[in-house]
Amino acid sequence: MNMKVKETGEHYDKMLFKEALRTGFFEMQAVRDKYRELSLDGMHIELVLRFIEVQVLLLSPICPHVAEHVWQLLGKKGSILNALWPTVGAVNEVQVKASEYLMESAHSFRVHLKTYLQGVKTKNNPNPPPVEKPNVVTIWVAKTFPTWQQCVLTTMKKHFEKSASLPDNKVLSGEFGKMEELKKYMKKVMPFVQATREKLDQLGVKALALTLEFDEAEVLKNNIAYLANTLEVEEVLVKYTDDPEATEKMKECCPGSPFVLFSTKPGVKLDFVNPVPLNGLLSKSLTVSDGDTVSKITQRIAKDSKQIKKPESIQLWRFENLEVERKMPVFNEPTKYKVMIAKDAVFKVDLQKKKVFVQNGKNSVDVGSQVTYIVV
């Protein structure tokens, strides 16, 4: 928001009213939308009011009547035309870049997910069957570029620092061809050089840096809830490519371009029933995986029901024994013959027998095929 205030002020100073409208209205709205997406627990009212106040001040020179009306709705005294331009603090460029990285990465992950769900088309199978929707995404992050890319970037940076430009690709190709460490990767070298050259035109010498200005993995980990929500998965894992589990393909990714892998955690279907009359909450069939907590299950129920605003308000109940499961439910006593599942309990799954158990401490109980959920 501070950056947009600064940019809009500069555009007004230069009489660039179209640009001022772009940054002061359209891009400010995009900033608000991004904040709304990331604020899964709700937006902060004081910050929202601050946003409205700042935006009407930015727009007051070009649409004073609307700005004046909103100014009065905010309960401000006097005319907006006499108000001072909003004062802002210093712009944290690193945080802005980290935010842009997060949004670009999330968009890239969504595109990959769409491709993944379409299945792999082959000559023999041009219309593959639909792929099961994944519930786990693993994001592989590189701490540095692969060795051969580091060699290419270091060489390009030396040329750029010497003459403030790069030699032709033909010259670079000849130079790289003589390097012993690059002979194995020559098919990949020149496409990488061309891609880096294009980045150089946009970002300057920063395109030749071997690391990012911010901690890529930390940004992703701090926004796991947002990534899980936007990708509609239950679990997001962030790992480094130097992990022993990483394959050669994963190790080829570079800083700023993480490798994403979708997978489906196996589990057993359970029916989650709400027996409370006249509340509009429907039964749900959810897959329970080994190690799922009560918190995870309640979050999934809440996500599937717009009526439930707080997952922590959901209680899970199991039948006290499986014979009772076959009895007719008591209309006005939804918890009769049932035991509440503790908040710290963990679900254990036997995939071979297709059974689900709830474990609380050392005790493990078969929950049968149905669990009751009640909103309190």
> pLDDT below 50 for ≥5 consecutive residues: which ranges?
none
Query: How would you characterize the largest beta sheet?
Result: 5 strands, mixed
Instruction: Please provide the ordered H/E string of secondary-structure elements.
Output: HHHHHEHHHHHEHEEEHEEEEEE
Instruction: Specify the CATH architecture of the domain at 267-375.
Output: Roll
Secondary structure category: alpha+beta
Organism: Acanthoscelides obtectus (Bean weevil)
Domain Leucine--tRNA ligase RagD-binding: 141-213
GO molecular function: ATP binding; leucine-tRNA ligase activity
Family: Belongs to the class-I aminoacyl-tRNA synthetase family.
Task: Give short descriptive properties of this protein.
376 residues, 12 helices, 11 strands, 42% helix, three-stranded mixed sheet, alpha+beta
Protein model, in words:
- Keywords: Aminoacyl-tRNA synthetase, ATP-binding, Ligase, Nucleotide-binding, Protein biosynthesis.
- Belongs to the class-I aminoacyl-tRNA synthetase family.
- GO terms for molecular function: ATP binding; leucine-tRNA ligase activity.
- Residues 264-375 form the Leucine--tRNA ligase ubiquitin-like domain.
- One of its GO terms (biological process) is leucyl-tRNA aminoacylation.
- There is one protein chain.
- With 376 residues, this protein is α+β, with helices and mostly antiparallel strands.
- Among the domains are: 2-82, no CATH class; 147-208; 267-375, Ubiquitin-like (UB roll) (Roll), CATH 3.10.20.
- The protein is 42% helix and 16% strand.
- Strands 5-4-11-6-7 form a five-stranded mixed β-sheet, with helices on one face. Strands 2-1-3 form a three-stranded mixed β-sheet, covered by helices on one side. It has a three-stranded antiparallel β-sheet with strand order 8-9-10, with no helix packed on it.
- A hairpin with a 4-residue loop joins β8 and β9 (355-360).
- The protein starts with a helix and ends with a strand.
